[in-house]
Amino acid sequence: MIFAGLICLARGAAANSASSPPPAVRIESVQIGFDGIFKTGHWAPVWVTLSCAGPSVEVELRVAARDSDGVESILVGGHDHRLRLNADGKTVALRYVKSGRTGSGLTIRVAGERGELAARSLAAGELGTAEPSTQELLVGLAPGIGLEEAARKSRRDRFQPVTVATVVDPQHLPADWYGYDAVDVLVATTGEAGVLEQLTDAQLEALDGWLKLGGRMVLCAGRRGAEVFAAGSRLARFSPGQDAEAITQRVTTGLENYAGASERLDAIGGQRARRFGIPMTAVAQARGTVESVEVGGQTGRLPTIVRFPYGLGQITFLAFDPELPPFDQWQGRGALMGRVLQIAGTSRHAGGEADSRTGQIAHLGYEDLAGQLWSALDQFPGVTRSPFSWIAGLLAVYILFIGPVDYFFLKRFRRLSWTWLSSSLIAVLFCALAYGVMHRLSGREVHVNHAGLVDIDLEQGVLRGSSWAHVYSPATEKFTLEYRNHPPLMIHSPSQSGRVLAWQGLPGAGLGGLDSRAGAALFAEPYLMVIDQTGAGTATAGVRDLPIQVSGTKSLMGTWWALGKAPPAQRLSANVHGLLAGQLTNPLDCELTDCMVLYENWMYPVTGTLTPGKAVTFDGVSPRNLEWHLSRRRVVDTKEVVTRWDQASLEVPRILEMMMFYQAAGGAAYTGLTHRYQTYLDLSEHLRTGRAILVGRSSAADSRLARDHDGWDAKRVRQWAFYRVVFPVDRSERAAIP
To answer: Can you say whether residue 582 is alpha, beta or left, with left for phi > 0 and alpha for psi between -120 and 50 degrees?
Structure first.
């Protein structure tokens, strides 16, 4: 009896547990991007505030955004993919999304062990401001820095409009480096202890990783520079030199000339200051390129604007505080910040570039170099896309047959009543004809085009791999793909590493572009993008259940990274004339062909194959002009001949070469296209700030896509692999002076 009673009690408890209502979870608020600003085609941070009325519960939060084809995509994996909601409390969770179309919204789902607990769909108007994929975005970590003035000046001068976002709460900054994907330049100040110094360790590592992997930051350190860059400070890593100290500077002619200002800093408003002095930070042995100097400091030469490489990215140091007096009232602050940020006065052809853009979109379907690469990778051997003229012609013939031909044929035999049968037969025959032609032209095999670029900074131990893959499917099918990488160089004690594979859109407002309005989705079910941030490289990264329609393609973008300690860096040297001297060796474990070494505005050709460990010497090598090489300029019969950039070219290596050194080739003035979607690929600035770059091709790919079950037919896979290795250069004093 006792045993039976215990069984009844247990069953009753289980029944009560099963019948107890699930905790009431509510999606309170959603914040996206930086001050509510994000860009299509780029990763954006999303903060979701959840409330739980009831006992604590463990849930999974997923945020879905529509890709460039209108299909929902969800990023999963990474850190803390599951979270615990506290009883009767609120929890803020950070996720990342990649929005593919202007005007599309987000869908948020919260699931527990028993199923969905809460869901919410947000329209585009509820999210914030979705900027175009190629819009330049400046993020300031303090108000009143002068970014708005610089942006207004750029619009006045008919340059590309610039969007400015201001973040004053450190909690509204991402904790993963790819959360800064949409940011072109981050501007931080230290005049007062602000956002930069309040970042958590995870947020600071995310910022550090973004900079090393290609980000750009302007760091202003005036009166507190000695404190900010002191030994043991978390921000000491961003110092532009050594032995930082605070000084009072009374001569500012260099800054006034740099800004092209008619108003002097010591006479703002026409009133000459009696006791004039600006707190500044003086550093010794400034690295990179000094763009502005003043007479002052211990050595008599005070660098006030220094631009230097930081891994694959760049930091611009300002030795003053632009948000403090006297700069806050100075008329030249907008021009000075515009030049520092490189958003004004940098292109002589901005107006012509804008005027020709409409025609480019109509004819080519793209206006950015990334779009040209997208178009080139979308061509597959053995697959012929039916031109619109063919489709229009077939429709015209069909209308002709189902109308006049059918009528006169039946009238001749006096069988007009048979038109229901003849028209049906004509429709069936034309459908069969269209189906047969489509399969004849499109083939029956899956094709893959895969281009890869690996960038390595030896001094700071940075590896970044970028992959573009287009997958063609002859039939409607779902694909599960794994993204695998093989680093060509060992990095010791990596602090950050990972892989992610996501969809890639076509930048611009052309047909199907990221900046066009959202259209109807062909597939209702979402697919997953899996990120691996374990650091061990053993977890799976890729996409799951990716749908591709019949005779359609899907464009994918893969990124892998590793930050740590590289083998001892080789240091090159430059003589007083700015030419390289000495030798370098290939530090990679793969052979390189078609090699060249670039430094400043020179190209040093490398003959033959560069095997691992093989040395390249510069003694006796005559360099060539880099811009001439990139633009294929030559002299024919004493005349200078320039090979114009072919905007319709489908040559993948040539397009990638231009994306790698866009500014060095002349930028939009040469190509007639922008390079604003994936600007981090352009390392032209590194050549001007004390870095030499070894460039080469290889038959050994750094990454590949693996299919879950069938694999690929090797004959249907085309690959291109490029490598760039960045070497530090010790420049003589004469060569280092701008």
So the answer is: left
